């Protein structure tokens, strides 16, 4: 590589045809699942007013923004997540949209963070959201859709697990053990790092927040409880019971849907983003070697906070970087699909005019066609046809054309047969 050759920025990707083929494979699976669930696709601008993210996204996201002033002096940022844009768009047409609203998108997102396995500075993400429904059935359906988006790609319960909890449950538990409401957000931020830092560091940080060693210890104990244990221990706390019952309902819906064995309650899960208000969940690969594949939950206050209308909402984001790693690890990423059906081979330049006509006619019929442009030997053209992944080579020679025929070679089997020239586009493939 030349020393003066410009390279891509760290954390950003070039998508050569083989990489783009893998991306299209993932996107196609995502779209199939979204459409089966009755969701409509939308998109928004990659550049938004900075305020859209600083209002409710939380310190983690704000600290990773690609932000700057545009030429008009306006503070702007490349979108680091899709939910604020989604909320802004819903607010614009909330009154006219039938409820519940079911939308999905596959945006490219940007965050300035340290590139590592499973995390880059740009990625694509499947977002699915339901707006206008408070029933926990919506929460269950969103989680089920996230699971199915992975099942569509060949993953199953032996590969992935779903951690599920509820912000309302943890808020009620913190209230019950005497943690002041002003400290809840700091506690959530600390608990969100439980899987990334040693437990003694987490305990020390919690003691600094609540200023009570016993209470700090209780917080960590609660994160290890099963949902039935919490229901028994806090049976006299109405808010705990209500949140726990709803969560049991969500998990029950998943089992009744045939997705038993995928989801499990995890009281330590709180999600770091500030706008979550209820159910939260993450999907992880079973062995825990990679980052979370998917994360989401209920955010009933966000639309209103962004200057819109008061509508409940639940949704998730699923990134392509970690998912691609997981699919490759389990050999579930298909080989690059060929982009050519037919390769036109000319025995000599005398057949060129016919080749052009045949190629165009086949393309009109829906076939993907290319041809040799260099007047090479037949053997070289056939080699190129194989390299292109073509299904068949259509060989045009003077002798065959004089009889109104062409030679068609099946490039997989090697079989050859003469067929009438005017029948090529009538063949049922």
Give a description of the structure.
By secondary structure, the protein is an alpha+beta fold. The protein has two domains: 17-329, Bira Bifunctional Protein, Domain 2 (BirA Bifunctional Protein, domain 2); 342-426, Rossmann fold (3-Layer(aba) Sandwich), CATH 3.40.50.800. It is 38% helix and 19% strand. It has 16 helices and 17 strands. Strands 1, 5, 6, 7, 8, 9, 10, 11 and 12 form a nine-stranded mixed beta sheet that branches. The chain has a five-stranded mixed beta sheet with strand order 14-13-15-16-17, sandwiched between helices. A three-stranded antiparallel beta sheet has the order 2-4-3. A hairpin with an 8-residue loop joins strand 10 (279-285) and strand 11. The mean pLDDT is 90.
CATH class membership of the largest domain = Alpha Beta
Low-pLDDT sequence parts:
none
Number of domains: 2
* Gross morphology: elongated
Rg on CA atoms, Å:
28 Å
Helix content: 25-40%
What's the total count of β strands?
17
Termini, distance in Å?
45 Å
**CATH architecture descriptor text of the largest domain:** 2-Layer Sandwich
Structural class: alpha+beta
Figure out the total of helices: 16
The major sheet is characterized as:
9 strands, mixed
- What is the fold-level CATH name, i.e. the topology of the largest domain? BirA Bifunctional Protein, domain 2
